[in-house]
From TrEMBL:
Coiled coil: none annotated. It is an enzyme of class 1 (oxidoreductase). It comes from Nitrincola nitratireducens. CDD domains: NfsA-like. SUPFAM superfamilies: FMN-dependent nitroreductase-like. The keyword Transcription does not apply. Residues 10-162 form the Nitroreductase domain. InterPro entries: Flavin_OxRdtase_Frp, Nitroreductase, Nitroreductase-like. This is NADPH-flavin oxidoreductase. One of its GO terms (molecular function) is oxidoreductase activity. It comes from the Bacteria.
């Protein structure tokens, strides 16, 4: 429809990068584009930490499940939901911040997600490739320690950026008929569309892996959601001052 929509529809996760460096001024502009994202009540609750290649980056790669591209990507950013500066703002005006509310956790985390997606689109508009790294939450306490994160700050995910050294196919998304509903939440046709989508995803995996994987989307989801999902997250977030009430 237009260049922006075409760019959005071309998104792919890039995990292999050339050795070409990314200009530092590009990183600044990418983060400024992130700042332009919508923010709940002007709260601006996202902080980005750029981690250079070296020992700390290598340890972050270990924390994320030994994803080698975390260590090797030209640029690695960690997006943090940050309510610490808001506590400072309250103290500057001799006010006591009432923290720990679930709503504050939601707004800070959503702010962070919106910020990061703006960064991803900005990076892709410059010809860079990106991949989100949620695996940092596998060892979130260690990540927090490595980055010296204070109270009321937690790492939501990382992002690798660089010039792509691969050209993967676009992974098919759920049919619009399932995602876009009208007037109310209707499931009447969902099963039919999901069967069709399963066949599409199965063919995508079969083609991409040369027949080594032929999993459907529902098989993948059902296999994932019968397992514990990072049960250490809640006590960690409580310790950081989130989700207390």
């Amino acid at each position: 429809m237009n260049d922006v929509i075409n760019l959005l529809n071309q998104h792919r996760s890039i995990r292999k990068f050339t050795e070409q460096s990314v200009p530092s001024e590009w990183v600044g502009e990418i983060v400024k584009a992130g700042q332009a994202a919508a923010t709940s009540s002007f709260i601006q609750a996202c902080t980005v930490i750029q981690v250079s290649q070296g020992d700390v980056r290598n340890q972050l790669a270990e924390c994320s499940g030994n994803q080698i591209y975390v260590a090797q990507a030209p640029i690695f950013l960690v997006f943090c939901a940050d309510m610490h500066r808001h506590k400072d703002a309250c103290e500057q005006h001799q006010q006591h911040m009432l923290s720990g509310y679930t709503e504050q956790f939601l707004t800070a985390s959503l702010d962070c997600g919106l910020f990061a997606q703006n960064c991803a689109v900005a990076a892709e508009s410059l010809g860079l490739g990106v991949v989100y790294i949620g695996g940092l939450r596998n060892q979130i306490a260690r990540v927090s320690e490595l980055l010296e994160l204070p109270e009321l700050v937690y790492p939501v995910f990382g992002m690798c950026l660089g010039f792509p050294d691969q050209n993967p196919e676009i992974k098919p998304r759920l049919p619009l008929e399932i995602v876009l509903k009208h007037e109310k939440y209707s499931v009447d046709a969902d099963v039919k569309h999901m069967h069709e989508y399963d066949a599409q995803v199965q063919e995508y995996y079969r083609t991409r892996t040369g027949g080594g994987k032929e999993m459907t989307w529902t098989e993948q989801i059902s296999g994932m959601l019968v397992k514990e999902s990072r049960p250490h997250m809640l006590p960690f977030l409580n310790e950081k001052g989130f989700l207390l009430k």
